[in-house]
Each structure stands twice: as C-alpha cells, then as structure tokens.
Amino acid sequence: MNRSAALQHRWIATACLLLVFATTLIFYWPDVPFVGHNAAVNVPSLTSSFRPANHGLVKPAGVPVIGLIFFGRRDRVEVLRCYLERNLVTNGGWLDEIQWVRNTHDEKDLAYLRDDILPSNPLYTEIDISEMPGSDQQDPAYENAWTKLRRGAIYIKIDDDVVFIGEDTIPRMVDLRVKDPSIFTVSANVINSPLMGWVHYHGGAMHPYLPEFPVDKSHHIPKLESTPWAYTSHPNWTGDADWGFYAEDAVPEHYHRWLRMTESGDSLPSSTAALMQRTPITKIQYDTWGTGLRSWSIAAQEHYSFLENLHDDPSLDIYKLSKIWTTDYERLSINMIAVLSDDILDNMPMTGVVDGKDNTPIADEEWLTVVMPRKLGRQVVVETDALVVHFSFRTQSGLFRTDLLGRYADFARREVCIGRSE
C-alpha cells in the first residue's frame, strides 16, 4: 500500500470514530431543563419521554377509558361536543363512555343536557349528584362526583369549556398514565392555563394582537355569531404606533375582535419584538394565581395566537416539547386531566390542612395536583404533546366580548363535527 492510500484509510478510520463519538453524545447527553428567556421564577424541569416517529399508540386492553364532563354551559359545550364525538370508540377514538355531571341550575342548559345530549348516544350517561350532601355548593359537589367513579378505569376529566382537543391528545394522556405508575395526575398541555401559558410565551408561540383600532362601537359582534376562524379572513391591525393594550386594561363595553399586528401596520414601521411590547402577554407569570389566571386580555392573546398557529401549522409543533413538564406540586388547573379511578377512590375524602386544621374539605383541583400527589410521593405532569384549548376562567369574562367563541365554533363545525361540516 502506498503512502497516499495509507493516509486515506487513516482519515476514513478517524472520521468513523468521530461519527461514533458524536452519535453517543446525541443519545446519551443528559436533558437540559427548558428555561425561557428573562426567567424570573424557579421553573420546573422537563423529564425525557421517548416518542416513536409514527406515534403508534395502542389502546390498553381491559382498561375502560371514560370521559367525565362537569356540564353547565351550553354555548361552550356545543363546541366541545364535536371533539367528544370524534374521540368515541365508535368513531375510532379511545373514549368508551362519557359521563355527564350536572353542574348548573339553569333550566335551559339542563334541557339541552336532558333532551339533546343524553338521548343522542348510548355511550352518554348522567351522574346525578343532586341529592347528595353539599350538592348545592361547588367544591363538595365536585367531590361527590369523584366518589361515583367506576373502579379499574382511566378517567379523562374535561371542563365543559374546552374548545379544542388535538387528534392524539387523549391517546397520549392515557398511554402516559398507564405506562408510568409513578404519576398520579396527567394534564394535557393547555392553552390558557396560568402555568403553561408562560411556557408557551417563552417558547415563541405568541404573536402580536390588539383589539381593533380605532374602536368602532357601531361594529357590534353578537356573542354567539359564527365568524371565520382563520386569521387570514380578517384584516391586519392598523393604528397609532404609540397605542397598546395591556394586561390591566379594562374590558371594552362592546363586542369586538382582535387583529394581527404586522411590522408595516403602524403609521411608523416596528419590529415584531417591539410590537409584542404593546400587548398584554409580556406580563404573563408562571404563577397559579398570577396574571395568566386574572387577565382576560392575556387569555385573548393566547387564543388568537393559537388560532394563527393552528392555521399556519396544523401540527402545532410550536407548543410541543416531546417531553413531560413536571409541576413540582405547584397547583395546576385541571381543565383536562387523566387519572386512574382507583387512585381517587382509595384516598377519599378530598380533605387537607386548611388554617392549621387537618381533614378540612378542599377543592378537587388542590387535592388532585398538590395534596394527594405530595402525600403519596407521586408526580403531577403535563404531557406537552397532548394539546387542548381551555376557553376561560371566571376571572376572564372579558373574553365573551370578543369574537373568539364564534371562531372556535366555526372551526369545529368545518373541521371536526361529524355530519355537521359546511
């Protein structure tokens, strides 16, 4: 072998060794916690979770998967119902049954449940807690419903104002809960959640939106009017370069829409980063009781940004981390969670320490995400690839003066509802 050939073989061998070393680093280098820029809080870490490329999840045999809906508001349930139907086993989904819990005294809403929803499908049943002690009070009523669970089942508790559920959300939540017994509660990755909204913002999922300017009080948008869901069906925002709308600003008196700001939409061009500084989302906090819960305008910007992301990239990868997010026992909103019924029934009642007094009745959210997991040494995690959208908290009533519910209804009718698409 001549000198040139020997050198060539030596370079090839060296390259192969470097390739093996690089591959080893890729597969065995420890995960780095996700921390957004300008982090001002002690942020929980991410835990690795391997996902096969084809997401080939298989429904666990012999384990019923049951939806649990605390029903009370028809206008939002009409949107949710499309997603529930899509996820029934009879339509190729994973939900074997849906149990509806009456959580209202409104006769019109109750008539919708009694006369429309329940008779429409044999997989729908009602949990009646009206005669149980404390049924006229919210927290005891919730506990009463949890005592009615069927043993040996995975329950997916879903708020009645969830207005979007990803196609693989329920399978992902169930699969994670079944495979990892160290987990007590699995939450979906919720858009409009006080904790996860902070994560979404610092992950780049938010866009600059402002209420339409100038405010046109003659442009009245009825609350339930269906309006095109795609942001491209609406004009871009235009207005003064020094005008903004912030987390603490009051709700407009009239129904209105928010529009996408662009770099050329002002009287003077601005960068996207500068535009964002005039919007509410910059004040969002990683705090259960913080601005992400209290501010209707922060929630509005989360919603309008989500609809843009849904339009531009239906996979919604910008929200997904391919890992689980551990809460470290920070109280987490339970807008959509997966639990094992036996974990709940074996640890009743829902009590904790309040003002130094043990065995005091507490809210189911506190019990499911803080008290019981901590007591048992079990995890509360967010499956970050399982996406849902939660419409509003009680503190966010201003959302009902926007056209958002109409946009979600339009998307559901066009893309989700079985036999009702336009």
Provide a descriptive summary of the structure in words.
- This protein is of the alpha/beta class.
- The chain has helices at 3-28, 74-86, 107-117, 138-146, 169-179, 194-202, 272-276, 291-294, 296-312, 341-345, 364-376, 404-415; strands at residues 46-48, 65-71, 97-102, 124-127, 154-159, 162-165, 183-191, 209-211, 258-260, 323-326, 336-340, 351-354, 357-361, 379-390.
- It folds into two domains: 65-192 and 332-391, Spore Coat Polysaccharide Biosynthesis Protein SpsA, Chain A; 202-312, no CATH class.
- It is 32% helix and 18% strand.
- The relative contact order is 0.17.
| CATH fold field value of the largest domain | Spore Coat Polysaccharide Biosynthesis Protein SpsA, Chain A
What structural class should be given to the helix and strand makeup? alpha/beta
- The arrangement of helices and strands along the chain is HEEHEHEHEEHEHEEHHHEEHEEHEH
Portion of residues in helices? 25-40%
Largest sheet: 10 strands, mixed
Give me the count of strands: 14
Instruction: Please state the CA-atom Rg, rounded to the nearest Å.
Output: 24 Å
Q: What CATH first level of the largest domain would be assigned? A: Alpha Beta
Mean pLDDT: 83
Number of domains: 2
Features:
Spore Coat Polysaccharide Biosynthesis Protein SpsA, Chain A; 10-stranded mixed sheet; transmembrane helix; globular; 2 domains; two-stranded antiparallel ribbon; 18% strand; transmembrane; alpha/beta; membrane; 12 helices; 422 residues
Question: How is this fold's topology laid out?
Answer:
Layout: H1 3-28, E1 46-48, E2 65-71, H2 74-86, E3 97-102, H3 107-117, E4 124-127, H4 138-146, E5 154-159, E6 162-165, H5 169-179, E7 183-191, H6 194-202, E8 209-211, E9 258-260, H7 272-276, H8 291-294, H9 296-312, E10 323-326, E11 336-340, H10 341-345, E12 351-354, E13 357-361, H11 364-376, E14 379-390, H12 404-415
Parallel strand pairs: 2-3, 2-5, 3-4, 7-14
Antiparallel strand pairs: 1-10, 5-11, 6-14, 7-11, 8-9, 10-14, 12-13
Helix pairs in contact: 2-12
Keywords: Membrane, Transmembrane, Transmembrane helix
Transmembrane segments: 12-29
